[in-house]
Each structure stands twice: as C-alpha cells, then as structure tokens.
Amino acid sequence: MSVPLTAGNTRVKEARKLSRRSVRTERRLFLADGPKAVEGAARLPGCVVEVFVTPTARAAYADVLVAVEQVTVVDDRAMASLSDSVSPAGLVAVCRHLDVPLETVTAGRPQLLVICADIRDPGNAGNVIRTADAAGADAVILAGRSVDIYNPKTVRASVGSVFHMPLALVPDPAAAVAAVRDAGCAVLAADGAGEVDLFEADLRGPTGWLFGNEAWGLPGHLASLADHRVSIPIHGRAESLNLATAAAVCLYTSAASQRR
Amino acid sequence: MSVPLTAGNTRVKEARKLSRRSVRTERRLFLADGPKAVEGAARLPGCVVEVFVTPTARAAYADVLVAVEQVTVVDDRAMASLSDSVSPAGLVAVCRHLDVPLETVTAGRPQLLVICADIRDPGNAGNVIRTADAAGADAVILAGRSVDIYNPKTVRASVGSVFHMPLALVPDPAAAVAAVRDAGCAVLAADGAGEVDLFEADLRGPTGWLFGNEAWGLPGHLASLADHRVSIPIHGRAESLNLATAAAVCLYTSAASQRR
Q1: Distance between alpha carbon B229 and the CA centroid of its chain, in Å?
Q2: Residue B199 and residue A132: Cβ atoms within 8 Å?
Q3: Which of B51, B67, B96 is the last residue of a domain?
Q4: What share of chain A is helix, strand, coil (3-state, %, to 5)?
Q5: Which residue ranges does the record assign to the RNA 2-O ribose methyltransferase substrate binding domain (chains A, B) (predicted)?
Q6: What are the CA-CA distances from residue A141 to residues A157, A217, B38, B200 (Å)?
Q7: What local confidence, expressed as pLDDT, does residue A49 receive?
Q8: Band (A1; pLDDT cuts 50, 70, 90)
C-alpha cells in the first residue's frame, strides 16, 4: 500500500481549492464530504473524479469505495484540510458538477417542480433539495442570486439528495417561472400575504412552487408572475415559518393532493 | 444619561454567566438576544428582569424598550460579551424561565400537543417550537435528555415563539406520553417505519405528536408507547426528512384535518 499523501501534496492542494466558489465554478468540480455524500456520488455514473480517503476510513467504508475507480489515500491532516466538517469522517470525493439545463428539467411533463429565488442560506438550500426529493418533486431550479448548490454545507444538508434530484441553475427567476408555466405547470408563489389558503387550494394538477429568500421572502414583482400567491395559515402567534419548513408543508400538501 | 457599563462591570459579568446551562438552570434565568426576542419577552408579564442595550440600539429600538422597567446601557464590548451573535443587534434581555408544569399543559382539553424526546440540536428545537406555534399547537413538551430550551440558539431559532408557547420540561418521556393520553389525546409517534401513512390517518381528534432525536429517531420502546406510529411517505429517493421539516408536515396536516 502506498504512503498516504500529505496536506502539502499538489493533488491535495488542488482539491482543497474547491472550497472556493470561484474555483468550483471555473473547474465545474466540487467536494462531497462524508460517507453518505460519497455513496450518493459514486452511484451516479460519471460524477466522481477521485476520492481522497484516510487509511482508517478506507477500511471502514470499503463498501462505498468499491464503485470508485480512483481512490487516493491521504493522512489525517490532509483530510482535515479537505473537509469542512469539525470531525471529518475520512472520505471526500471530487465530483463533477451536476446541474442540467432548464430545458432538461421542463421536458417530459413534470408534475411537481420547485423554483427557489435568491435563497441564500446553504443549509436551507440543501434542506429544500432533500425535502423536494422526499416529496417526489421532479426537479429543483435555483434561480436568481441563490447560494451555490456545490457549497459543502448545501451538499451535506441535502443528505445525498443533490445526487438524486435534477438541479438547474437559472440566473433570471422570471425566465424560470415562464419555462415552468410553459411546461404545463400552474406556478404557485409561497407568500405569507398570499390570497389563497394552502389548504383550500386545488393542488391536483401539475404545479411549480416558487419560494423566495429566507429573510425578505418573494419581492412583489416575482410573486405577481405566479398564477396564484398561496399562504400557509398561521394559527398561533408565530409571525412566519422558516423557509425550508414552509417548503416542506407546501410540497407535501401538493404531493398528497396529486396522489389522492 | 449615565455612562455605559463596560464588560468588566459586575452586573454585566453576572449576566454573561447565563451563557452556561448550569447557571441558567440554577438561577432560572436566561438571555434573549435581539429585537424580536426582547420584544417577545417584554410582552410577557413578569418575564424580563433587565435589558442591556447599547446607546445606538436604545435609540433604534425605543418602541421595544418602552415596556421594560429596567434598561441598562452598556458599551459595544460589553454587548459583544453578552450576545452569542456574530453581529449583535445591541440589546439583550435577562429573562425568567418560562417553562410550566406538565399539568398546566395537559389541563383544559388540548387539541394539538407536541412531545420532543431527546431532541439535541438547539436550532432544531427552536424551529420545532416556532412551527408548533404557527400550526396552532397548544404546547410543546421537551422530554428526556433534550437540549436546553434556554440555549441562545434555541431562543433565536424560535423567532419569539418560546415566549408564545406553553413549554414543559419532563425528564421521563414515558410520563409525558401517559399524561398527554390522559388529557384525551391520541398519541402518534412520527416514525419513518410507522405502520400508518400520514395522509391516510384520521387526524381529526385531539392529537399528541411524539418526535424523536434528529439522528436516531424514536427508540422502539418509546414508539411502542404511542397509539399509532405514523410515517411520512417518501416518494423520491431521500432516505428521510430533517426533524423540524417532518414535524412541520405532521403538525400542519393535523391542524388542517382538525379545522376542516
């Protein structure tokens, strides 16, 4: 067995640069950290370029690594330099970007789509992708100035779902709304001030949900592009719901209506 | 106007000790950080002992402070030592503990109760309390070895809802389940392996939801105490849902059924 590479090794240093968004975007590569993420990446043909692993993790996660062609053993310090986790599990994959063109997402009669406009918190973005996956959505569109879906926190919070869900990145939220409507979906904006109560809405048809920023919600000009603005009723004294929480309630209510 | 107190002042130092759980528990006091939290606390009679504020924040949040008897002006360094926020808003309240006896929570025919058993993440706990508030739940019971609800992260994630919702702390989860059932509620355990599909369950009657730890869920012996074990259907390839997300879907589905 070869000697583990150290943090100063050129390949380790090059991989470490993927912690920067600009480098990720330029190289169209990102890091997937931990066994869940590496397993998800390894199941996706053509996704994994290389997996860095500590000797201990190589033995512990042999089942995950069996599908990986290029496995590189590194020491604990090198692993710590690649992982953004406080206690690294010992394996990090260099992965190719996953996003697909908007046309791919809107082809083939989608039933349930998610558009996130200007979502900024990496954990929220990952959690929304995970929830969309669980609710059976066809795809998630990250629109506007949204967080980088290849941020390690987003990848981690998605618990593998970034590798399951078709993801599209669209700079202009209005273009995303138009494309989703053209695909045959009613576009519903989640809006605390919306005129339709979620639980009184007819959600049986193909639907595209539009969610706004976690702090300031959907700006009026975007909300007005939707076919309806839908509010989750607040029965108590809370002012609002967390974005990922609100998305979960909307998506599961939609999924239940469509499948009834 | 008096000179702002510094970080070395005895009262500031004593308040700062409330960042430790042991001191919070012993004194039955905690810190509420930021305008939302201080406003929530100030509206609750008898809750606020004292508010520490920077000169700038005193001017900016005069409307919040008008209801507070004891306002103490401190300098920016003293504020930074009291706040656990990276960018403190400039006001922190010393508050009396809010939790009520379990008997208070189960009195008066509750319709929707939440039991969290061994919930460990402070942000998750706060988010569940906020969601329970929004969904119109009557109270949240933190059972077993759950996170301290007076943790600053929990208070912040609740966005004021710790001041709205009756909260009970119960060391023994089984005792909480028994009390909720005695109050006339069907106890439903949220369990990924549950035998009842959430969207096929009859949720019209009074209900107590039982949620487990974010990592390992509900242990079998606790799940078996519930009347039914209810699963949220996973339509896609996600393995599970985030705890706060799952709680939101369960509580809103219950609330919608009860109010239909």
Answers
A1: 24
A2: no
A3: B96
A4: 40, 20, 40
A5: 31-101
A6: 17, 17, 37, 30
A7: 97
A8: low
CA distance A215 to A222: 15
The residue in chain B having the minimum alpha-carbon distance to the alpha carbon of residue A251 is B249
pLDDT tens figures, B160-199: 999 999 999 999 999 999 999 999 999 999 999 999 999 9
Same domain flag for B113 and B71: no
Residue B193 lies in a domain: yes
Q: Is A129 helix (H, G, I), strand (E, B) or coil?
A: helix
Tell me, what CATH number does A189's domain have?
Answer: 3.40.1280.10
Amino acid B68 reads V
| Residue B166 falls inside a structural domain | yes
**Contacts for A20 with CB less than 8 Å, ≥ 6 apart:** none
Check residue B214 and give its pLDDT. Answer: 84
**Start-to-end CA span in chain A (Å):** 56
Position A224 scores a pLDDT of: 96
pLDDT score for A108: 87
Pairwise pLDDT comparison (B36 vs A101), residue with the higher score: A101
ipTM over 0.95: no
Range of the domain at B67: 10-96
Tell me whether residues A242 and B127 touch, CB distance under 8 A: yes
Closest CA to A90 of A114, A62, A112: A62
For position A39, what pLDDT does the model report? 93
Shared-domain flag, residues A63 and A186: no
Identify which of A204, A97, A183, A174 has the alpha carbon closest to the alpha carbon of residue A138: A183
**Quick check: B122 contacting A, CB < 8 Å?**
no
Neighbours of B6 (CB within 10 A): 12
**Best mutation site among B39, B121, B131, B153 for testing chain A: the one with the most A CBs within 10 Å?**
B131
Q: How far apart are CA A73 and CA A3, in angstroms?
A: 8
Tell me: the pLDDT tens digits for A154-194? 999 999 999 999 999 999 999 999 999 999 999 999 999 99
Give the residue carrying structure tokens 């390839």: B237
Strands lying side by side in the sheet with A186-190: A167-170, A139-143, A112-117, A207-211, A186-190, A228-231, A196-197
Mean pLDDT of A203-210: 98
